[in-house]
Amino acid sequence: MDNNAYxxxxxxxxxxxxxxxxxxxLSAFQVPEWYKNAKFGIFIHWGLYSIPAYDxxxxxxxxxxxxxxxxxxxxxxxxxxxxxxxKDFIPMFQAEKFNADEWAELFKKAGARYVMxxxxxxxxxQMYQSSISHYxxxxxxxxxxxxxxxxxAYEKQELTFCVSSHRAEHWFFMSxxxxxxxxxxxxxARGDFYWPAMPEPDHHDLYxxxxxxxxxxxxxxxxxxxxxxxxxxxxxxxxxxxxAAFKPYLKKFSAYYxxxxxxxxxxxxxxxxxxxxxxxxxVPDVERGQFADLKPYFWQTDTAVAKNSWCYTENxxxxxxxxxxxDLVDIVSKNGSLLLNIGPKADGxxxxxxxxxxxxxxxxxxxxxxxxxxxTFWRIYGEGPTMVKEGQFTDGNTKVFTSEDIRxxxxxxxxxxxxxxxxxxxxxxxxxxxxxxxxFQGLIKDIQVLGFDEQPEWNRTENALSITTKNVxxxxxxxxxxxxx
Length: 485
Fold this sequence. Notes:
The chain is of the alpha/beta class.
């Protein structure tokens, strides 16, 4: 199908479907129940940038900035960019150890409910078969439809398949290579790997340096092609789609995708950042950060097992599994979901550090998952002295929680109270559940501690619900299961 025919197909789907390309119509969107119940997903950054495994997934941009550490590294290892450019990594990307079934089994053991591979990153190399560009993994590199293999493997494990597109930023991502003698040279035309490589804009300017109509139509068709070929249940967008030029095309894509979900009989959702959407038309995402308080709307955090990079690098600074589990509990208590990123190596193998973290999370969820999955928020998200810093890019420092930091979730008549840092003396005080509390004045029928045979002792006074254990020990959060009556 040529581009004009595809654009006509998009318009016809919008015309004939329930959803139209305006905010009023898109506000009829409802978050799928499966998504609200899933709570934990896996994000995957894997591509050409995994070959140098240096700096970050922005290697394709940074290697063309003279004087940057990525540029100096590239000179030392691969040579000058005019002789060895980013495109020359394509033949090196063979994915020779990639086994989608092994990945799916690992993610299942980790306790994930949905998986979201990056289909196309800012570098413009597609991890799937495409009619829009020859620069994809079916025609080049491994000569395999990696996305198709992942979809089949994940769905076999009953993991919900999702995708992300970071294509929007390709408008400017390769532009620095035009500033000196590199392999990025004019003229560049649609279909070229480096096209369009336009000057990088001020990222705080929502109106300046708008992409051309040609680029925006190309972006729209690429996104719709992903929808048509792979039927993802969530479609994640990275930043820069919030700029003014993208708005009409973003609305068209949303209407097209939501209408396709209606055709499939399967509810779908979109993730966005930076107020790219009107609230209520899609699911907001907080990159590498959290909300400080409970939100009345469903939201998502996307973060990574490593603090320094989304992709695999040889010197990744990893978080601990316990740290990630505490964040998961905090996010879920505030009506959110955690999308946790890993970075496979270029050959398709999962680094040991990533694997160990995922398995540790899965081990905790095997015991405590009932306090996470299929739950909803309580009257308050929790209590305690530790304040979680709100906003994006706030996960660089490990949060130090105390035994007074409690998070609540609820399912039917069961209230779960998760202690983020369990005290050595085994005594926990839940102030929100004291007698005559304005949060809860009902009856507590029974209290259990998940994962332990010990029956805790408990006493409810005007100051707190006090729970005492003798043999409960863990560096990870401990969950009390309260049966209410």
